[in-house]
TrEMBL record, chain A:
<keyword id="KW-0813">Transport</keyword>
<dbReference type="InterPro" id="IPR011864">
    <property type="entry name" value="Phosphate_PstC"/>
</dbReference>
<dbReference type="InterPro" id="IPR000515">
    <property type="entry name" value="MetI-like"/>
</dbReference>
<comment type="similarity">
    <text>Belongs to the binding-protein-dependent transport system permease family. CysTW subfamily.</text>
</comment>
<feature type="transmembrane region" description="Helical">
    <location>
        <begin position="174"/>
        <end position="194"/>
    </location>
</feature>
<keyword id="KW-0812">Transmembrane</keyword>
<keyword id="KW-0592">Phosphate transport</keyword>
<feature type="domain" description="ABC transmembrane type-1">
    <location>
        <begin position="81"/>
        <end position="313"/>
    </location>
</feature>
<dbReference type="GO" id="GO:0006817">
    <property type="term" value="P:phosphate ion transport"/>
</dbReference>
From TrEMBL, chain B:
<dbReference type="GO" id="GO:0005524">
    <property type="term" value="F:ATP binding"/>
</dbReference>
<feature type="region of interest" description="Disordered">
    <location>
        <begin position="1"/>
        <end position="26"/>
    </location>
</feature>
<keyword id="KW-0067">ATP-binding</keyword>
<dbReference type="InterPro" id="IPR005670">
    <property type="entry name" value="PstB-like"/>
</dbReference>
<dbReference type="InterPro" id="IPR003439">
    <property type="entry name" value="ABC_transporter-like_ATP-bd"/>
</dbReference>
<dbReference type="GO" id="GO:0016887">
    <property type="term" value="F:ATP hydrolysis activity"/>
</dbReference>
<dbReference type="Pfam" id="PF00005">
    <property type="entry name" value="ABC_tran"/>
</dbReference>
<dbReference type="InterPro" id="IPR003593">
    <property type="entry name" value="AAA+_ATPase"/>
</dbReference>
<dbReference type="GO" id="GO:0005315">
    <property type="term" value="F:phosphate transmembrane transporter activity"/>
</dbReference>
Length: 325, 291
């Protein structure tokens, strides 16, 4: 039999109405706009950062100082980049367990009503969302004036008993304005994002699976471990990555707390540190044209870092979706 | 205690049954492991969703190693009653109940009982097959043991026994590592039956287990029900009159009229309910004149 006799698939066409065409155009435009804006930001940062890159070359990634004026400017993003990562990691270490526990409490344990008339669950949910709405400058000030004095004791304890671990070492005797305090504040700021997304995901757990487990004699804790968590894995990772995005990008709260210091520093309970976003916030307008270009170059590094993290995150989320379902 | 007293208690919340599940006292020795089939006795059971009463004064004895069918039109409270029998009713927000349910003479709603322990002894198969999709067939069968921290050196034997009883062994013996969600609908439901049997329950509750399945799968499950009935008490809710006649020894006919709470119209041997019903409403229903 020749192939000409075999039926070829019909090319399906559909006549669209004007309404449909208009709607399609608007949504498509909005969809493409995200790509365009993202690309424009990248291109803008790159062009503006060129003078800084020309001045320092690859050393921009390995230098730790920030001397942008004078005959021999020397600056680099290394300490700021490592500082951003340290703060974000501390923030997530604090935020993840608290947020997931909080989301579980709201979803699994909290009573709908308290004293029969207070809508407790809704109150809690609203409170968490409200936490996300508090401006970061408020967190920064609260962290500086209220939290910081109370953290010093804990930091001293950490450095006394775990100082030998290196990261908790304190060589200066000054405990305020440290990575640890900045990270704690950033963690508190990440909590509402992670909590409310996790709560959303947990609540989507199919009731069939949940009841199936309960009917076999599973306790609530078992149901959470063996039904809710496996189902929510992808969403939980996604929410943590969004939290990480905020942690890496937080500028004002960190800028208020941290004492800007350029040497590479891994002593988290010691005064002095650096972060890209705080660096930009604190140095903006200083250091002349090259200074501005250097800050934009640092911004570009942060931009690329968050892009990479987000891509990895979506890979993980997709992979866990495949495995889970 | 009269039913009226019970009702007031529930409505005022003084002895709200839901509190019982959080009791910290150690569970009484409800049943010894290895003991098979038990009798379930519901006494004066009432149920509410919020303020609305959906079940009124239901008394029913579900005899040891017999199959009891609960029949009746939609919305008459059969499923609610079934879920009261293993304390699944109380997990619905706003749900409450009154009355008592005895498992071999012990009240499953006693404040010293743990709801989870009760559910282990009174298993359940749901209307829609609900295997754990991310677990393998093997892990699905063993899930109940895992949930109850039961250690066993004979896992392979337990798996084979449970799957054989559920009539699934020959189909999945080479697919034990496949995911539970990869099986067909009928196989999934039999997997759920195997999963429930693996923890050796005294009673198995089945809530319209065949309503989402094709006739072939339905037949397999009915065979399974008849085969397991000699070692576990079965209570089955069904809309299918032929099914009730095929599998059950005893039938209870539930009815609710004009939005009133459901109640039992008539209980009796299955053959009597279908051949010689005492109540004209039962006769109308089993002969297909309504419902």
């Amino acid at each position: 039999m020749t192939s000409e006799l075999a039926p070829s698939p019909l090319k399906l066409a559909n006549k669209r109405s004007n309404e449909d065409r208009l709607f399609r155009g608007v949504t498509r435009g909005a969809g493409l706009a995200t790509f365009v804006i993202l690309a424009l930001i990248g291109v803008f940062l790159f062009i503006e950062a060129l003078p800084a890159f020309r001045s320092q070359g690859w050393r921009f990634l390995t230098n730790t100082g920030w001397q942008t004026t004078g005959a021999h400017p020397q600056f680099g993003v290394l300490s700021a980049l490592s500082g951003s990562i340290i703060i974000a990691v501390i923030g997530l270490i604090i935020a993840i367990p608290v947020s997931i526990s909080c989301a579980l409490f709201i979803n699994e344990y909290a009573p709908d009503t308290l004293l029969r008339f207070i809508p407790f669950k809704n109150f809690l949910t609203a409170a968490v969302d409200l936490m996300a709405a508090v401006p970061s400058i408020i967190y920064g000030m609260w962290g500086f004036f209220i939290l910081q004095p109370h953290m010093v004791g804990l930091e001293k304890w950490l450095s006394t008993f775990f100082g030998s671990l290196g990261i908790f070492q304190n060589t200066s005797g000054a405990y305020t304005s440290s990575f640890f305090i900045a990270g704690t504040i950033v963690g508190i700021m990440c909590m509402p994002i992670i909590t409310s997304l996790c709560r959303e995901v947990f609540s989507l757990t199919p009731s069939g699976e949940r009841e199936g487990a309960m009917s076999l004699g599973a306790s609530r804790a078992r149901v959470i471990r063996d039904v809710v968590f496996p189902f929510s894995k992808g969403g939980m990772i996604g929410s943590i990555m969004l939290g990480l995005g905020r942690a890496l990008g937080e500028a004002i709260a960190v800028a208020i707390i941290i004492a800007l210091a350029f040497p590479l520093n891994f002593h988290v309970v010691q005064a002095g540190g650096n972060s890209i976003a705080a660096l930009i916030a604190l140095q903006w307008g200083a250091g002349g044209n090259l200074g501005t270009s250097a800050l934009l170059a640092a911004g570009l590094v942060l931009f690329i870092l968050t892009l990479i993290i987000n891509m990895i995150a979506s890979r993980i989320v997709n992979a866990s979706k495949m495995a889970g379902r | 205690m009269t039913n009226e007293e019970n009702m007031t208690e529930v409505l005022t919340g003084e002895t709200d049954r839901r509190v019982a599940s959080s009791a910290t006292a150690s569970p009484t020795s409800l049943r010894v492991d290895g003991v098979t089939a038990a009798e379930l006795h519901a006494k004066g059971v009432h149920a509410w969703f919020g303020e609305r009463m959906v079940l009124e004064n239901v008394d029913l004895v579900m005899e040891r190693t017999k199959v009891t069918a609960l029949i009746g039109p939609s919305g008459c409270g059969k499923s609610t009653f079934l879920r009261i029998l293993n304390r699944m009713h109380e997990i619905v927000p706003g749900a409450s109940l009154a009355g008592s349910v005895d498992l071999d003479g012990e009240d499953i709603y006693d404040p010293n009982q743990r709801a989870a322990t009760i559910r282990r002894h009174i298993g359940m198969v749901f209307q829609r097959p609900n295997p754990f999709p991310a677990m393998s067939v093997r892990d699905n069968v063993l899930a109940g043991l895992r949930f109850n921290r039961i250690k066993s050196k004979h896992k392979d034997e337990i798996i084979e026994e449970a799957l054989t009883k559920a009539g699934l062994w020959s189909e999945v013996r080479d697919r034990l590592k496949d995911m539970g969600g990869a099986l067909s609908g009928g196989q999934q439901q039999r997997l759920c039956i195997a999963r429930a049997l693996a923890v050796k329950p005294a009673v198995l509750l089945m809530d319209e287990p065949c309503s989402a399945l094709d006739p072939g799968s339905t037949l397999r499950i009915e065979q399974t029900v008849k085969e397991i009935a000699h070692e576990v008490t079965v209570v089955i809710v069904t809309h299918n009159m032929q099914q009730a006649q095929r599998v059950s020894d005893k039938t209870a006919f539930f009815l609710s009229q004009d939005g009133n709470p459901g109640y039992i119209v008539e209980t009796g041997k299955t053959e009597d309910i279908f051949a010689r019903p005492q109540d004209p409403r039962t006769a109308d229903y089993v002969q297909g004149r309504f419902g």
